[in-house]
C-alpha cells in the first residue's frame, strides 16, 4: 500500500483576519486529512493566503514577472496532489484577487489535479457562484472538480445542533470524502513545475551582455 504523504494545498482568498474563508478551508482540509487517514495515507497541508500575496500578484499582472514569494506559492499549487480553493463571494462571483492569482497559471498547470471548490458569503443567495463561476474556472484549467461544492453563509457558522438545519458539517464531510477518494485512488506523481514562472532576477541576468 502506498504510504507516501498526500500534498494538499489550501488556497484562501479571505481578506480579513480572522477570515471565514480561511476557517472553511481549514475545516475542509482537516476533514480530507481524516478521510485519507482512514484510507491509510497521511496528508501534508499547506495554506496559501492570497491576502499576503496581493501586491505580488498585482506586480506580476503588470510586469509579467513573478517575485520569489509568489513563484513559490504558484509552484506549491502546481505540484500539489490535491487543491482546496476557497474564496469570498463579491458581486455574485469570486473575488478579484482569487481570479487574478489563478490568471497567473499556465492553462495546463492544474491538468488532472483534484480540486474541491468552496466559498463564503453573507447570504445563501450567493451560493450559485460556485457553479456559474468557480466550477467553470477550474474546468477551463483542466482540473478535476469534485461533485460537491461547499458554500458557507453567515448563518452556517452559528449551528443550532439541528441536523435538518445545520447542513454545513454534512456538506464538508461529503466534499472532503470525494476529494480524499480521488487522492487515494492515484499515487502522488511529480507534476510539471510552473515552468513559465521565472524569477525576475533570472530575467534580468538573461538580458545582461556577456
Automatic annotation (TrEMBL):
One of its GO terms (molecular function) is oxidoreductase activity. It holds the Pfam family FMN_red. It is an enzyme of class 1 (oxidoreductase). The keyword Kinase does not apply. It comes from the Bacteria. The keyword Hydrolase does not apply. Its EC number is 1.5.1.-. Keywords: Flavoprotein, FMN, Oxidoreductase. InterPro entries: CE1759_FMN_reduct, Flavoprotein-like_sf, FMN_Rdtase-like_dom, NAD(P)H-dep_FMN_reductase. Residues 7-157 form the NADPH-dependent FMN reductase-like domain. This is FMN reductase. It comes from Actinacidiphila cocklensis.
